[in-house]
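Title: Request for sanity check on Transmembrane p24 trafficking protein 10 prediction

Description:
We are preparing a figure and want to confirm that the structure record we downloaded matches what your pipeline produces today. Could someone re-run it with the sequence below and paste the raw structure tokens into this thread? We only need the token string, no images.
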Amino acid sequence: YKCSSAMSRLSVLLLGPFLIGSALSISFNLPVNSRKCLREEIHKDVLVTGEYEITEQPNTKTNLKITDSSGHILYTRDDASKGKFAFTTEDYDMFEVCFESKLPMGTGRVNDQLVILDMKHGVEAKNYEEIAKVEKLKPLEVELRRLEDLSESIVNDFAYMKKREEEMRDTNESTNTRVLYFSIFSMCCLIGLATWQVFYLRRFFKAKKLIE
């Protein structure tokens, strides 16, 4: 039993990085005078780092801009070719990384640019080698620190999922209550309309002396 329990803990630690999915590495072609954007949802108070490289083309200017859903600029670079960026999120939000290629009119044909983007956040974004140097940590202590941060990230993810589940449940309950009240209101309206029609037709037929 103890062996099985230990294996289960080890499996969780090994699978943790794959479950979190905190790294994004991608490459794509960017045509001239075009704009391509990548979007990703990131939790609150999370460190985000990235490294990009863009192949240069004659007379071509490529701009890089990172914004949140409110349009706030987190990082911008004009005439970007190669570099790094880093920022910490202030709230859970959808972030957009945009590359825009510009070529002056009248310039000859230019090939597409190759964009390579390597973006990390959370545990993957932290430089544990630098932390070890600053805090003078041993290799085992560094690994324990990384596992501690990983565990905290997993706990935060589960807490966020629980919160979203509670919000969805509250929304469903509120919707069900509103539907019930609307159904009762609709039924009362139908009953009132049917009653009014009966009395109206009765008065009409009496006025025409079709009934007594």
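Thanks, this matches our download. The longest strand covers residues 93-102.
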